[in-house]
Design goal:
Blueprint lengths: L1 H4 L11 H11 L21 H19 L8 H4 L16 H9 L30 H19 L6 H10 L9 H22 L22 H5 L3 H4 L4 H11 L5 H17 L9 H14 L14 H16 L3 H10 L9 H14 L4 H11 L3 H16 L6 H15 L3 H13 L13
Length: 444
Amino acid sequence: MIDVICRSRRQFVTTSFAMLNYIWLKGQIVEFSIAGTDSSSFAIFSDLQKPRVLGLLYGGAIGDALGGPIEFQQGPLVDKELPCTRGWSKERTVKPEDLKDWSDTLVMREYGELRPLAEPYGPWTDHAHAGTITDDTRHKIVLMRTIRKAISTKHWPITVDDFATAYCEFTPKQRVTPEAKIAELNEIGYREYRFAARWLLGDRDPNSAKPVERLWSGVDNCSGQMALPPLAAVFSGEPNAAYLSAYAIDFVDSPTARDMTAGLVAGLAATLGNDVDSASIEDRWRVLLQTMHATDPYNLTDVPYVGRPLSHWLNKAFEFAERAAGKPAELFRLLETEGHPVYWWDAHFTLLVPISILIFCNYEPLAAMQLTLDFRHDSDSYTQVLGCMIGAVHGVDIFPIAMREQLDARLKADYGESISDWFEVVNACRHQKDKGHLIVESQP
């Protein structure tokens, strides 16, 4: 099974049972603690871990901000902004110089003419500046505020009810957009999540609460992938604990999507472990992808006749990259047909797209970001997943400082948030590991 997922035409990721078994055994230790404390006087993450933790936190938000102006946009305005490989001949293959060019030309874009107006699931400001986030990062803000509240109140463990309450309470802390418009965007953008959250919290008024199973009509969508990757930093080096905790509080996903989210968080957590500090970039990618595949505490792989969808689609990512043989047109065709998206934001698809494009691009991180944008569709969801992975593997310096500064400026101005504060929040959780407090409930 493992040798299937680890196949690529460049043999970049090869099977390593010794490493995989070590990760799996390490992940069985479900031990995690927290207590509220000021994190300014300590540093739990090693000097080599810190850049990867920051990379994870920055990467998801940067990926979102890169994809936001492009999301679902078509026509000549967006074509001229991207490599536009859909205009290539079907037989044209990617050359090393293409990868370099794509890496060199990856930039944050103003929303401007591409996506000028504020939208409930897009930017919450008109004519948004470069670096402005969409719902993919707003969901992460909900998670970070949940953790921050737990630290300030010393209320442990964080439960699914706490996460649901944070959805009900969410609002920007800053008022760049007029308050009435923000209120409307906030209400529409979180309405479906709040219906489910209120039901989970015990509300049965049909005007304000709906059964959790009704959320997005039960579609396997990417809500959890948008919200929960920062949990990987809290459980760095503990993939099994990361999986169980993400699974436990993830009320925003269907059961199938919940496993995909928890698997992603587990893979990221393994990649952030201090035992990976000295590993090569190649080995870090191997750790991430193999851990996603292997961390299966509920034994979904053993379900008769069905198996585990996450493993199926991870295998397909490698297969599509292999079959495309360097031709973007063929890769895109495979994704759009044999990838079987019903909606462009299907949970399996928001993993399949960035991972297959990453492998196709020979694991060149910024080139893969550019080609993922060029794929179009739900671009911000694809690139935020890819950004989390790239940051966790390469560290924060892989993202140009100009991008980080643009993101920092918009997060602060629009939401009163900062990535540096997020780092301190997850660092505080790690600091309290040995205090005996459960950080996040580990049973759904």
